[in-house]
Specification:
Layout: H1 2-10, H2 13-30, H3 38-52, H4 66-87, H5 91-108, H6 112-118, H7 121-151, H8 158-199
Helix pairs in contact: 2-3, 4-6, 4-7, 5-8, 7-8
Length: 200
């Protein structure tokens, strides 16, 4: 532990700046300016250099990149698919849920869409929220409400709310896909303009 601190100090800005100033003191000694007080001059210049050196900056914290976050969302989506397969939803709701999960699968599949999405932290956040929070909450609240509806029939069917929630989530995912498509179209148009300008 002490050895690593000593090695860290040897590489520190304070030591390097102090050593540079101490070398100036040695030059003064060899030119005869420091005289008999050369040890004091060298030590004083080293100390002054160490004092004026900028402090060490702590390293920046490392956060996962959007690409790594997308990989985590992909793994969580596989867990979600396993959960949805076990729930047993009505056929009408299954169809709507299938449309949403197909769209999410297309967005999360490795490929150009995922590469483009990895450059959009907001898009990764939208997908993460949909996979980790919105769909599980919608399905779980449906399962709970359906149980209570069996005890007190005559209420509004919980399937209606779940279908509406899934439709809203699908609209949000479609907007995200449209934004990605528009970004690619803009990129293509920009490249076309660049090539046209280059040839003029």
């Amino acid at each position: 532990m002490a050895t690593s601190k000593a090695l860290a100090y040897l590489e520190s800005r304070k030591n390097l700046t102090g050593s540079g100033a101490g070398l100036v003191g040695l030059v003064l000694t060899f030119t005869g300016v420091a005289g008999t007080y050369w040890p004091v001059v060298v030590a004083g210049l080293y100390g002054a250099g160490a004092l004026i050196a900028p402090p060490e900056r702590p390293p920046l914290p490392e956060f996962p990149t959007p690409s790594a976050q997308l990989g985590e969302v992909r793994a969580d989506f596989r867990k979600l698919e396993t959960y949805l397969a076990e729930v047993g939803l009505p056929a009408s709701t299954e169809a709507r849920l299938g449309e949403l999960t197909d769209l999410l699968t297309a967005l999360l599949d490795p490929g150009w869409a995922a590469e483009l999405l990895a450059q959009d932290p907001e898009g990764v956040h939208v997908l993460s929220r949909t996979v980790r929070q919105d769909i599980p909450e919608a399905v779980d609240s449906f399962v709970r409400t359906r149980w209570w509806t069996r005890l007190a029939p005559g209420q509004e069917p919980p399937e209606r709310h779940l279908e509406r929630q899934l439709a809203l989530l699908k609209e949000e995912a479609e907007r995200l896909a449209a934004d990605l498509r528009d970004a690619e179209a803009r990129r293509q148009e920009t490249h076309t303009r660049y090539l046209e300008d280059r040839n003029n």
